[in-house]
Every structure is written in C-alpha cells, then in structure tokens.
Design brief:
With 185 residues, the protein is mostly helical. It has one domain: MFS general substrate transporter like domains (Growth Hormone, Chain: A, Up-down Bundle), CATH 1.20.1250. Helix 1 runs antiparallel to helix 5, helix 1 crosses helix 6 and helix 3 packs parallel to helix 5. The longest helix is centred in the middle third of the chain and has 30 residues. It starts with a helix and ends with a helix.
C-alpha cells in the first residue's frame, strides 16, 4: 500500500521539469521551479496531513490522500495544461506525498504498537525504494507522460481500495458487530 502511495510523488519529483515542458508548454526555467513548489507542498503535507489525521483518523486521511492523488494524476493525463493548472496539480500530488510520509508511521503504531515501530517503519520504507525504482519502469512501459499519469492514477486508486479494506478490517465497531457473531457461531 505504501508503494502505491509513494509512486505518484516520486514520479512527479523526478520528472517535474519534463512534465512542465512537455505537457504545460513551459520554458525550462519555469518548469524547473516546479521542484521548489513540490518541496514546499511536500513539507506542508507532512505537517498538515499529520495533524488532520489525528482528528479524522489515520486511515480516513490515507483514503482522502489516495483520492486526491488519483484525481490529480487524472488531471495531468486529461486536462489541457497551462502554467497555473500545472502548478496546482503538482502541489496537490506533493501535498499528499508528504502526507503519506507522516501518516503511515502513525498507522503502524496504531496497528502494531510502538514497541517495534523502528523496525516496522524500516520495512515500509522498502516500499519507498521499490516505488523509486518503479517510476522509471512505469514511464518506459507507457506511451508518453499522459498515459503514465493515468497508470499512476489507477495505482493510486488501488491504494485507496486497499485503505478502505484496511479501514473495514480494523474498525473495532464493525469487527464487534459483524465478525464476532460469525466467529462465535
């Protein structure tokens, strides 16, 4: 699931200038400034999404971030791009990418406790490395950047579905109401 979360962010970080030049028709200098925008919104996402997830629930926040990432990737795939839309879409993806980085460790703490959090985080960051290796592969398999973003949107959608299943599986109210009676019969 963390691999699905990281793929979109790593893809736009690595190819931000190319996206700006090829899809938005920006000059190289303006397109390169997208990296700064991504860094800023990545930071804001880490702070904002981490704080919001404490209020709305960690898994609910993950579902929302997967949804936003998928919508932004579809936007990169389908919408005619101008400078403003380009920066808005990249900002949304970067915000969620930073948010994933801050919320996933909290989910690990919720599910497995904090006594082994260091080892557990180390395991999920293997998915980060796999996503970094996967993003160039996705680009090479796709026919251009637009189809690459559609593939990445589908992957983000798959992550959102996995998050919904995790929410259902870990919701104590649902477990007590529906699963406990099945197990006791």
């Amino acid at each position: 699931m963390y691999l699905c979360a990281c793929l979109g962010g790593l893809l736009v970080i690595g190819f931000a200038a190319d996206i700006g030049v090829e899809l938005a028709g920006l000059d190289v200098t303006t397109a390169t400034s997208a990296v700064s925008v991504i860094a800023l919104f990545n930071l804001v996402g880490r702070l904002l999404c981490g704080t919001l997830s404490d209020r709305v629930g960690h898994i609910n926040m993950i579902i929302a971030m997967f949804f936003i990432t998928a919508v932004m990737m579809v936007g990169l795939s389908l919408f005619p791009m101008d400078k403003a839309l380009f920066f808005i879409l990249l900002a949304g993806i970067a915000l969620c990418f930073g948010g994933f980085t801050s919320v996933f460790p909290a989910i690990l703490g919720d599910l497995y406790g904090t006594q082994n959090i260091g080892g557990n985080i180390g395991l999920i960051y293997q998915a980060y490395g796999a996503a970094a290796l996967m993003s160039p592969v996705v680009i090479s398999l796709a026919d251009g950047l637009r189809s690459t973003f559609m593939i990445t949107a589908v992957i983000a959608g798959a992550g959102m579905l996995m998050s919904c299943m995790l929410l259902i599986a870990t919701d104590k109210t649902l477990v007590e109401k529906f699963y406990r009676p099945l197990l006791s019969s």
